[in-house]
Specification:
Elements: E1 3-16, E2 19-25, E3 37-40, E4 51-54, E5 57-59, E6 64-70, H1 74-79, E7 87-94, E8 107-113, H2 118-133, E9 141-148, H3 156-160, E10 164-169, E11 176-177, H4 180-187, E12 208-212, H5 215-228, E13 232-235, E14 251-254, E15 265-267, H6 268-271, E16 274-276, E17 280-281
Parallel strand pairs: 8-9, 8-12, 9-10, 10-11, 12-13
Antiparallel strand pairs: 1-2, 1-7, 2-6, 3-4, 3-7, 5-6, 13-16, 14-15, 14-17
The protein binds flavin-adenine dinucleotide and FE2/S2 (inorganic) cluster.
């Protein structure tokens, strides 16, 4: 159930130029999952709408959520100045999130690009927690592919706790030059560098992809998944307004007709942000 609530800043730090990492104590943590997001209100009353920010991590024991965000404009700039003890109004928990039930027993590739990297961390963590309780046949194998602008590889060490991490950077300063798809072209199980004669642990096997990142990256993943005939679940972090399904400011074209509106549309804020790639026209 969505609600407006007041959170307390536990800590805030600068991870890379313009990228901030904030832990918030909030009762929203109880029901927060990977792929969902919160609306963060600003104190600046000229900015009416809450800013949507994904849940990067949940700590159920401490009743806390972590958000990692890039300063893009006035709202996120204000958030970056908050320090421990300050109060922040949140709307949450919003969106559908990833369905781990669909990943059981599969080789899962988690892909994050830029500011789409943070939500993949909670997904990696939840998969890891599920694996501990699952029998061998249902365990998931995780490969993590992260695309950065440059050598500022924020959250890389956090991801390394949960699987093998492959890096791409646009400027080629770390990992594969290019984006996450360049990593797949090189390190995927039928990629240029793969040893196709062996079941090589170093190559990335993809039965299923979960991804979040800029639209060109998600379009490329949709094409790749269609070619390989594998499912892909993509999180569309499009611009949003109300965040609760009321304004239609976030619609995406869909294959199926929506049973409420009777048109080929879905609202990213309530029906998503996570969709099966084959279901959306992006
Ligand atoms: C579901 C969802 C989850 C998100 N999760 C994160 C996250 O975890 N970390 C993070 O850093 N950002 C995330 N975003 C993007 C974030 O919401 C925007 O960057 C933020 O709202 C900008 O607010 P602002 O007031 O700082 O800037 P504004 O003044 O509102 O905008 C500044 C600039 O950013 C652009 N912008 C605004 N919103 C978006 C958007 N959604 N996508 C691309 N460009 C945008 C504007 O066009 C403008 O150029 C998410 C967005 C959505 C919809
Ligand atoms: S943002 Fe208003 S309907 Fe989605």
């Amino acid at each position: 159930m969505k609600k407006k609530t007041t959170a307390i800043v536990i800590s805030q730090k600068n991870l890379a130029p313009g990228i901030f990492d904030m832990w918030l104590e909030t009762d929203l943590a109880e029901n927060a999952h990977a792929g969902q997001f919160v609306g963060v209100y600003t104190e600046d009353k000229s900015l009416l709408l809450p800013r949507p920010i994904s849940i990067c991590e949940v700590d159920h024991e401490k009743n806390a959520i972590r958000i990692v965000y890039r300063v893009a404009g006035r709202g996120t700039d204000e958030f970056s100045k908050y320090s421990a003890g300050e109060k922040v109004k949140l709307l949450g928990v919003l969106g559908n999130g990833y369905d781990i039930g669909k990943l059981l027993g599969k080789s899962v590739v988690l892909m994050g690009g830029g500011i789409g990297i943070p939500p993949m961390l909670e997904l990696a963590k939840e998969i890891n927690a599920h694996n501990e309780a699952l029998t061998d046949g249902d365990k998931m194998k995780v490969s993590i592919v992260l695309g950065y602008r440059d050598s500022m590889t924020f959250l890389k060490e956090d991801f390394e706790k949960y699987g093998k991490v492959y890096i791409a950077s646009e400027d080629g300063s770390v990992g594969t030059k290019g984006n996450v798809m360049n990593v797949m072209a090189s390190e995927g199980s039928d990629g240029e560098s793969a040893d196709k004669t062996a079941d090589n642990e170093d190559t990335i096997k993809a039965d299923i992809i979960c991804a979040c990142g800029p639209m060109p990256m998600l379009r490329a993943i949709k094409v790749y998944a269609e070619e390989k005939q594998i499912p892909a679940y993509i999180s569309l972090e499009e611009r949003m307004a109300c965040g609760v399904g009321a304004c239609l400011g976030c619609v995406v074209k869909t294959k199926e007709v929506d049973h409420h509106s009777h048109v080929n549309n879905a609202r990213i804020c309530t029906d998503g942000p996570v969709f099966a790639a084959e279901d959306v026209d992006i």
